[in-house]
Amino acid sequence: MPVTGSLAEAVAEHRGALLPVGALPAVPGVSVREVTVPGPPGAPGVLLRVYRPEGTGAALPSVLWVHGGGFCLGNVDSVHLGAAQAALAARAVVVAVSYRLAPEDPFPAGLDDCWAALEWVAGHPGELGADPARLAVAGASSGGCLAAGLTLLARERGGPALCFQHLSTPVLDDRLATGSMTAFTDTPIWNRRLAEESWSLYLGAWSGPVPEHAAPARAADLTGLPPAYLSTAGLDPLRDEGLEYALRLARAGVPVEVHNFPGAHHAFGGPATPQEQRRIAVEHLDALRRGLDPVPRPDAGPPAAAV
After folding, report:
1. DSSP state of 2
2. What is this structure's pTM?
3. Which keywords accompany this UniProt record (predicted)?
4. Is there a contact between 64 and 50 (Cβ–Cβ < 8 Å)?
5. What torsion, rounded to 10 degrees, do the Cα atoms 39, 8, 233, 145 define?
6. What span, in angstroms and rounded, lies between the C-alpha atoms of 138 and 144?
7. How far from chain centre, in Å, is Cα 198?
8. What are the start-end ranges of the H helices in 158-272?
9. Number of helices (H) and strands (E), helices first, in the chain?
């Protein structure tokens, strides 16, 4: 949602209870269910929404879907249609995670919840009808930060094995020192002022060096991470940190596809035209499908169109 004031004001105005599954818009061809899985030690359980294309008996690839919102806004309701559409387009089990938000629960609470969700997905392929060899993470904006952080944690902890990471206009660097972050101080949707507040709320009272799991751009070594698709918007203050991260992935030997869409604000809002936004959405869905299934299945059919 566009933020016109401060993030703290938006939190006070827009936080609300999640809708029950039955009240969500139905997406033909996709089943949706909820499950609450064990959270991190001493923390509450983590709510997941599981999206699965109907009429598929075989084990499907799976993707943990992490919503954005500046670490303090957004929820699984906000990504309902996107997660359902991704399940259809990629013929995959898409698992959207409801993680704790700042400022009430600063780092590492949200990342810990996402890690608990990832471990549960990796450990329950039979229940999900998922192929354990094709597990990915995906996220947009701050969700992209959390998704990228998960890849670093998985490498550090020796699993779960990830086949792909899909990062859309990701937040990656708390230092806010890139050219685009310096230039775009008052752009719509996202700007330097909001980025500063977002990192302050997310890191909270954290003292000492900021860990790479919190801000993946700080990682000195990107070798051994899963193949990536990373997209940026040309009028987004986050543009340069995304492009630099993609280049560093490539230099580290990680297969990476990167696309900067020049005429768009953060999250591909205007001035990109509706036609351009649709083209971007179709590319994102196709990239997810290819990343999850680099060798096309005979029954996969053509990519689904974005709606």
Report:
1. -
2. 0.95
3. Hydrolase
4. no
5. -20
6. 7
7. 16
8. 179-183, 192-203, 239-251
9. 9, 8
Tens-level pLDDT at each residue, the chain (307 residues): 678 789 999 998 888 899 999 999 999 999 999 999 999 999 999 999 999 999 988 899 999 999 999 999 999 999 999 999 999 999 999 999 999 999 999 999 999 999 999 999 999 999 999 999 999 999 999 999 999 999 999 999 999 999 999 999 999 999 999 999 999 999 999 999 999 999 999 999 999 999 999 999 999 999 999 999 999 999 999 999 999 999 999 999 999 999 999 999 999 988 889 999 999 999 999 999 999 986 655 444 444 444 3
Annotated catalytic sites, by residue?
Answer: 141, 236, 266
Determine the 3-state secondary structure of 256 from DSSP. strand
Tell me the CA distances in angstroms from 82 to 18, 40, 90, 116, 190, one per residue in order: 16, 27, 12, 22, 20
- Side-chain-side CA neighbours of 269 within 13 Å: the count stands at 12
For residue 231, what are the β-bridge partners? 168, 259
**Domains in the chain, CATH or no CATH each:** 27-292 (3.40.50.1820)
Task: Read off the amino acid at residue 259.
Answer: H
Structure tokens at 233: 């918007």
